[in-house]
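re: ur question from the group chat, yeah i did fold both. here u go
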Amino acid sequence: MGSNMQTLIRSTTIGFLSLGIAFCASSALGITLTTQKFSGNFTLVDSTTVGEPFPESTEYSGFVAYDQKNSLRDWEVNVKELNLSLNPDSNDFGLKPDTTFTLSSLSNWDLRIDFGIAFDAPLYTLQRESKTINFSRASFGGFFNYSDPDANIKVTQVPEPSTIFGSLAFLSTITILKKLRWQHRLE
C-alpha cells in the first residue's frame, strides 16, 4: 500500500509541475490572448429611421479577444435598450456576420460586423479610440451612431487555452513515457 501511495504522490507532483511548466512556457513564448472587456452607457449622437426613433441612451457591454498576431478570436456586444446581442454565432436575417477586425494599437481598434448590407441587412461598427467606445449601424432602414466617451474598459492577457492544453498533452506524454521506461528498468 505504501508503494502505491508513493506512486500516486509522485504522479500528482509531476502533474502539477507539468501544469506549471505549461503556463510558464506558453507565457514565455508570447502565446497569449488579449481580451478587452467594455461596458457603460451609450448616448445617441445621430440617427435616421423609417420606424420608431432610437433611444437617447442605452446600457451596453461586450468584449473583443485577439491573439498576438492581432487575429480576432472572439467578440460580443450587447446593447440593452436596443434588445441587441451580437456575437460570432448571431443569425440576423438568416445570415451569419462577416467580421473585420483592425487593431491600430492597444487602445485603438475597429470591429465591423456585416450581415450583408447589400441585402438590406445591417452593418454594425464598434470602435475603440482611447477611452471612447463608438457603436453604429447602417442599413437601408436607417442608421444610428452611439458613443460613450468614458467607457469602462478592462484589458487582460492570458495564455491561449489551446497552447496550454497542447503543452500539457506533450508534457504528460513525456512523463508517461519516462515513467514506463523507469518501470521497465525495475522489471
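okk and heres the other one u asked abt
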Amino acid sequence: MFGWIKKKVTQASVNQMESDLNGFLRMLRGVPDDSMGSLLLGAAYVRQTLESNGTMPPYLLRSPAVMYINDCHNVTMDIGKEISKHQRNNNQSMGGPHMVWGHSLRALAHLELVPLGKEMWQELVRGFPFLEDKLETVDFTYGISTDETLIEEATFIPPALEPKSIPNIPKKKATKNKEKKIDIAEILESSFKAAFEGSEYQKGKRIGLPLGFYTDPYIFGFVVGSETVHMDAIGGKNWSTTEKGEYALKVHTYLDKNERDGLKRLFLNKENMLAMAKNDDFINGRLHGNMFSASLHKTIRADVMDPVYLSAKNKSENDGIPLHEAIAEATVSVYAKNKWDLI
C-alpha cells in the first residue's frame, strides 16, 4: 500500500519535472544562436561557482545517469534557492544559466528524462560558434567577471546528455596585438569623476558627483551617445532592440549605484525618453558622447571638422594624453564647471 503511494508521488514529481523541462526547451528554441552563446558563458560561470563553493560536487555532472539520484535532487533544490535569491536581488538574468544545470541534474536523476536532457543540450550547443564574440558582452549581460578561459568551460556538456550533433567551434581569433577590452561603464565613470577633481564634491564623505548628475539631460545624452557607439563597435549592430536595451541598462546600473539618481527609471520611461530626444542639452551631450566613444575605438573619421574635436585633438597631441580624455575635458568638464559652478 505505502509502496504504491510512494510510486504515485514519485511519478507525479517526475511528470512535473518533465513539464518544466519541456517549458524550458520551448523557450530555448526561440533563442537566437548568438544569444545562446551568452547563455552558455553565463552557465559556465554558474557551474564553476557552484562547484568551487561546494554546492555541486564536480563528479555529479560527469557521472552516468541515475548513479547519484539523491545528490542530483538535493543540488537541484539548492540551485532553485539560488535562482530565488537572484530574483529577490532583481537579477533576473541569472535564472537561465542556473536552469541549465538544474534541468541537467533532473535529467541525470531519471532515465525517462535523459532524452529531453539531450534535446535541451542540442539547442544549447547552437551557441558554440559565438562564444568568443559574446565574451565581450557577457559581463554586462549577467553582471559577472570573465576572461578567455570561460570559453573552454562553456563547451562542457554532461557526458550522459551529449546530443547527436555538436557544431564546430571556430578557431580562436588571433590575439596578437589585441588591446585590452574596453569597459565603457568604467571609463565613463572615471571621466565623469575627473571633471570634479579637486572640487567640493570630492571632499569629506561626498560620493564625488552631485545629486541628480546622471539624470541631467546633457550627461544622460553623453552616456547614451557613448554606449550607442560602443555597442556598434563590439558587434551590437546585429543585436535585437531588446539586447541593446539590456546592455544599456547594465551600463546605467553600474554608473548610477543603487539607482541614486533614477537613471534606470528615466531610461525605461518612454514619455521621458521622447521628451529627452527633443532637449537641446541631451542632443548636444549625445553628439559629444558619440565622439568620446568613437575616439576610444579609433573609429572617428579623419575628416571631422567639429571645433570641439579639433581642440581636443590638438590638446591630445600637444600634452600626450589619450584622445578620449582630451574630449572628456573639452566637453564634460567644461559643462560640469558651468552647470555646478566649479572653481
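fwiw on the second one: The chain has two domains: 2-161, 184-339. The chain has a mean pLDDT of 86. idk if thats what u expected
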